[in-house]
Amino acid sequence: NEDLGSGREYRLSLRNCQYYLRNIKIKGIKMIAVKKAKYLSDYKLELEFNTGDTKVVDLESHLNGEIFEPIKKVEYFKTVKVNPDYETIYWENGADFAPEFLFEIGK
Questions:
Q1: What torsion, rounded to 10 degrees, do the Cα atoms 40, 44, 47, 53 define?
Q2: Which of 30, 40, 49, 101 could make an S-S bridge to 44, C-beta 3.0–4.6 Å?
Q3: Please, what's the largest Cα pairwise distance for the chain?
Q4: Does residue 67 or residue 30 have the better pLDDT?
């Protein structure tokens, strides 16, 4: 193990921090995670969470910012996948949503 006082900088990416936080159990409750995603229509997805809940999310009003521009094309939106490492949905251009946010807006 290296001495942390050696002047070297140690950094974790936001994604690594999110991954580790999702896998920490707090009082026996695991953080929210997306296990499956299914395209329904328009900008709607059916998501299965690690809680056992299945919810429908409509992301149309949440596609703000440059990274979401390609996703505004429904054909690209349909290419959504679940990243098993970060346990949320994502697209190949790097766009994603926090699973906690998806759980909150889901119906």
A1: -100
A2: 40
A3: 54
A4: 67
Q: Residue 83 corresponds to which amino acid?
A: N
Backbone φ, ψ for residue 66 (5° rounding) = -60, -40
**Residue type at 103 in one-letter notation:** F
| 94, 86 Cβ separation under 8 angstroms | no
Say how far apart CA 54 and CA 79 lie, in whole Å: 20
**Average pLDDT of 51-62?**
96
CB 54 within 8 A of CB 39: no
Q: Residue 36: its pLDDT value, please?
A: 97
CA 103 – CA 30 distance, rounded (Å)? 14
pLDDT at 13 over 50: no
Q: What is the DSSP letter of 96?
A: B
* pLDDT on residue 11: 41
- Helix (H, G, I), strand (E, B), or coil: what is residue 67? helix
Phi/psi of residue 97, nearest 5 degrees: -130, 145
- Give the integer Cα–Cα distance in Å for 26 and 22: 10
